[in-house]
Amino acid sequence: MNLATTPQRLLSPAPVRGLPADFRWGVATSSYQIEGAAAEDGRTPSIWDTFCRVPGAVEGGEHGDVACDHYHRMPEDVELIAGLGVDTYRFSLAWPRIQPGGRGPANTKGLDFYKRLIDELRGRGVTPWITLYHWDLPQELEDAGGWPARDTALRFAEYASLAYEALGDRVEHWTTLNEPWCSAMLGYAYGLHAPGRRDPGDAMAAVHHLLLGHGLAAGALREAAGANPLELGITLNLGTATPETDSEADREACRRADGMGTRLYLDPLVHGRYPEDIVADLAAQHIELPVREGDLAAIATPLDVLGVNFYRGMQFSGVTEDGSPLDAEGLPVVRAVDRDLPRTAMDWEITPTELTDLLVRLERDYGLPTVITENGAAFDDTVAADGSVPDADRTAYLADHIDAVVAARAQGADVRGYFAWSLMDNFEWAYGYAKRFGIVRVDYDTQTRTLKDSAKWYRDTIRLTRDAGTA
Predict the structure, then answer these.
(1) CATH fold of the domain at 32-468
(2) What angle is formed at CA 185 by the lines to CA 303 and CA 114, rounded to 5 degrees?
(3) 428 is in an annotated binding site
(4) Catalytic: 35?
(5) What is the pTM of this model?
(6) Does the pLDDT value for residue 383 go beyond 70?
(7) 25 is annotated as contributing to ligand binding
């Protein structure tokens, strides 16, 4: 089954029942994907500026030099955000804009942009929610070793302190990292994202140093905040791992998938230890996490909130489609199983009920308040003759996943907010501009923004939910 053969549901806005009055509604973006102005006001290259110039690395050879030109169009974008009725805007700071080269003093012009953005948001009644790192590592730090090098974690904590010193009087909500799995695995193991390296040992060193950087930055922010309000978190991309059958091979495949995708991050963050089974799996591959004394205590600096980026759950098997055992150099590996489910334009299965399963599991195993910091879908939108952008498939996707949050809360999960990804179409990493996740369409030739039908539905749903009061 795919979306082309699935009847589209035309949904009307309605109040969402089962959410508290203080439930957060938001939209999210990231710096490299929307800002542009790649060489303006002191910003230096990031690993994505470099990676985009590697032939074949990004579809169409595209890059973020202009992107959505948000750097120059920020006030009108804030007006658009406020018009959606959301109370929170999650965005990321560009490290090479704030601290060019990843070392030394802060860049005043770079900080001034974010001060203006934050002041514009606050002036329109929208709460700023900062992510310190959404993948745009200063190229100079990659040249010095990147995330596999321990020093990068120290540099990240220094950058976090500079950002908080400048913006902490305006912002209460701080996220350290966005999706460290992607940074480590796509960037250093599989070579699909910047910096494009392919070394499993480097990737595991990057995992540890990303988490260490988070912990050191979190400690620095807590110390700097003192008695001032601070809600501190990290954002992970998380899914579910379900076995295709109840066979030992399939259950083992799910153990490994869940261990590498979820427990490798949350166990040290919450429990102060890496999962023993995954450490043993890595040792069998002659890979050791570069843990030093005190690292795990730093990584386990208490969190106030866990950001959850959810796009899909997955089913796994430990055998090939014809039933043969899977192995790589004598080690069991996993196979993702294709199910007969509707899919997005990314060819990702649409699995809203598995979001409920994930959130209930997170509550049970880790006990942290959560916010859905990203959830959304790419579809092949077209502009209608009247200029509108009908996207019933995206509206249905959002509605089903919001319902999944309500269902998780009914089962005891402490979910406190939902942020749609993304505010607008933008640079979609290795896909360039070919995939559109936005609830707002961007015409990249003119930079015109147009509310898609999903944005209008989201806006009206939020308004009706607020009008209905506490459910």
Answers:
(1) TIM Barrel (3.20.20)
(2) 55
(3) yes
(4) no
(5) 0.97
(6) yes
(7) no
